[in-house]
From TrEMBL:
This is Nudix hydrolase domain-containing protein. The keyword Signal applies. Residues 1-22 form the signal peptide. The keyword Signal applies. Keywords: Signal.
Length: 310
């Protein structure tokens, strides 16, 4: 038994020593924390758009980058007190008080098959003759969506809860510019922040965290470290919009939007570059772009007081 304890202690010391040295050999990924080192992506272009993405890992050049590996190194070198000090010095960005479930709606369609859903829609005057053509989805897609809890049917309308996730890196915000559907080669123009549908059983924060994990997995891993910005009284900025979606023509959709702001560990411009691509793994590729906020650009580009401008 003492010999086993000695082996265990030796193994732990070797692991800690590796962390402290930064694993100078192969690049390191810490999946438990979803923190990865610097990534550069090269895109192959074709007439149909982005056809693939390759990734090369290297050490981050950012001196003040603090990842899970940094935390382990601090703990080994300086003890737990130094680790706590490092955490205390982190810029306060919020602890995530926005943990409120949206108010539920009467749900219809959970147990319906395709013929029953079509009958329901026709009773409410919805013309489905264009469904399944072009970019429009099929009736069965609506059935699956409802069964997954991503939408509900109420008063002849498709009701969706959507969380809009604004990811920040200093003065820059992350936008999805395009989405590529590999199954049919279609390209959807997005030009918006990350958006994720969620069910009434999820909170906006839960859905936001899931969306980050799914759509940005190539960068942040399976366990992203997300810091949500606190809002007054823990309430999300929310609003309701009604309109028609190209996915299901002639079916009015009521969108309940919730907006959250956050920072994500390892998701920075010096890691991804201004433009990058991620593969969601479901036959979808996402194109992303970091954009400087207008107010930040205006403040930086403003002439100095007393300067002469033409």
């Amino acid at each position: 038994m003492p010999r086993f304890g000695l082996w265990l202690s030796t193994g732990l010391l070797l692991c800690c020593a590796g962390c402290a040295l930064g694993f100078s050999g192969a690049p390191v990924v810490v999946p438990r924390m979803g923190m990865r080192q610097k990534m550069t992506m090269r895109r192959s272009s074709a007439s149909s758009g982005v056809v693939g993405a390759s990734m090369k890992w290297g050490k981050s050049q950012r001196k003040d980058s603090q990842t899970a590996l940094d935390a382990m190194s601090v703990a080994v070198k300086g003890g737990v007190s130094q680790l706590l000090l490092m955490v205390a010095r982190q810029r306060r960005y919020g602890g995530g008080m926005l943990d409120v479930r949206p108010e539920g709606l009467p749900q219809t369609g959970l147990d319906m098959d395709e013929s029953q859903v079509l009958s329901y829609l026709h009773r409410h005057g919805v013309d489905t003759s264009e469904w399944g053509m072009g970019l429009a989805r099929k009736p069965m897609d609506l059935v699956k969506e409802v069964r997954r809890g991503e939408s509900v049917l109420a008063d002849g309308k498709r009701v969706i809860y959507v969380v809009k996730v604004q990811i920040h890196d200093g003065e820059y915000d992350l936008f999805e510019t395009r989405q590529h559907i590999l199954s049919n080669g279609s390209i959807k123009e997005r030009n918006r922040c990350l958006s994720e549908k969620f069910s009434p059983r999820e909170t906006p924060l839960e859905a936001a965290h899931r969306g980050i994990r799914e759509e940005l997995n190539d960068v942040v891993g399976d366990f992203p470290l997300v810091s949500f910005r606190e809002t007054p009284r823990g309430q999300a900025e929310s609003f309701v919009v009604e309109g028609f979606s190209s996915s299901f023509p002639n079916l009015k959709t009521r969108y309940h939007f919730f907006k959250v702001d956050c920072e994500v560990g390892g998701l920075r411009r010096d890691v991804t570059g201004i433009n990058f691509v991620t593969d969601e793994g479901k036959g979808r590729l996402h194109e992303w772009e970091w954009r400087r906020r207008p107010q930040a650009a205006k403040a930086t580009d403003a002439p100095l007081e007393g300067a002469y401008t033409r």
